[in-house]
Amino acid sequence: MAALIADRSPQELVAELWTLTGLAWDTVWRGVPADKEERERWCAALGWQPLWFEAGQYVRTRRGGRQYLASVAPGRPVTRVEYTAWGVRAEAVEENAAVTERAAVRWSGYLAAVREVLGECTWCGGWDAPDFPELPGRGPWYSPEWRLEHEAPHRVATWSFSTPGAPLFELTMLLGTGSAASPARADASISLVCHGPADAGDRGPVWLL
Fold first, then answer.
1. Euclidean distance between CA atoms 185 and 94, whole angstroms
2. Which pairs count as long-range contacts for 165-171, CB under 8 Å and 24+ apart, including other chains?
3. Share of the chain above pLDDT 70, in %
4. CA 50 to CA 126: how far, in whole Å?
5. β-sheet bridge partners, residue 125
6. What's the confidence (pLDDT) of residue 41?
7. What SS3 string covers 21-75?
8. How many Å apart are CA 182 and CA 177, to the nearest integer?
9. Cys-Cys crosslink for 173: which of 62, 155, 196, 204, Cβ 3.0 to 4.6 Å?
10. Which of 165, 174, 184, 169 lies closest to 142 in space, CA to CA?
């Protein structure tokens, strides 16, 4: 039976989103302090409790949710803030169709909820849309050909604003089912991602966070 990894309601997602819209984003993008005491003060000022660092800082929110702040190292710029609202892992490839159906239902609820806060999307569609946008935060392995082969991201909605320092908001669905040639057990998720400026000093060969 597929394992439920995360299961936040649309109302819980909206509550976290309202908090995110009020963040001092310039402070976030400058990065998480490397010093422990400074990091704790920095997180407290933003309404977070620091958890652990693993390719970025994980934090606990005031509402009990967990968010991920992508950064190549402590003290380096944060390039995105990510909140996973829903996640399911299949135990067998035969469960993939059922997981995909569940993901589609949850996507509709989350999308409607985020629209209530952010308004109409700048773009919304699926993996095979001819006008699929170029999204930030993808590694050099990513390409339109890879997206079409793996159907990943499966669905995306974006919201962009002209306010200086404001993030690009992205609601994204991943199914993690591999490709037709090499199917894999579903590792599905629906996440809200807030993209900031790229880290100009990131010269890593693998990831562009």
1. 8
2. 165/25, 165/26, 165/29, 166/25, 167/25, 167/80, 167/81, 167/194, 167/195, 167/196, 168/136, 168/194, 168/195, 169/114, 169/118, 169/193, 169/194, 169/195, 170/135, 170/194, 170/195, 171/110, 171/111, 171/114
3. 94
4. 35
5. 156
6. 97
7. HCCCHHHHHHCCCCCHHHHHHHHHHCCEEEEEECCEEEEEECCCCEEEEECCCCC
8. 9
9. 155
10. 174
pLDDT tens-place string over residues 133-182: 988 876 656 789 999 999 999 999 999 998 888 999 999 999 999 988 89
Residues 6+ apart with CB under 8 A from 48: 59, 60, 61, 62, 67
Tokens of 63: 């509402």
DSSP letters for the chain? -PEEEEE--HHHHHHHHHHHHTS-HHHHHH---SSHHHHHHHHHHTTEEEEEESSEEEEEETTS-EEEEE-SSTTSPP-EEEEEEEEEE-SSGGGHHHHHHHHHHHHHHHHHHHHHHH-S-SEEEETT-TTPPPPSS--TT--HHHHHHHT-SSEEEEE---STTPPEEEEEEE---B-SSSB---EEEEEEEEE----TT---SS---
